[in-house]
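Researcher: Structure prediction, please.
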Amino acid sequence: MSGGQGKDGTPLDIWDCGSGARMKWQFMSDGTVRAMGKCMDVAWGSTADGATILLANRSGNPAQQFRLNPAHDLVNPQADKCVDVRDKGTANGTRLQLWSCDGKDDPKWSSR
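Model: Predicted structure follows.
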């Protein structure tokens, strides 16, 4: 998450792997993906391509539901779209967005 801040509304981004709390995400049984006591969320519950993926207080709304499918896409079922890296960026700090799943290799997600 941008700046390593665990605050409601913080946009999410990619970063080199590390061991800090902002790097430890958990897939929960209620369908949320959480870090630092907050949930991954699609801003304003949008279903549009380009919607920002951010950190939010848990609300239980469909914008906070994500599934890791067998193709390793991280999908928001409400939008039926994938968590994507903006402009196919690879640099630290590149923001995450919601985007139509296209089956290509970028990005792919995993849990361990």
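Model: The beta strands are 26-27, 33-35, 38-42, 53-56, 67-68, 74-76, 81-85, 96-99.
Researcher: Thanks, that helps.
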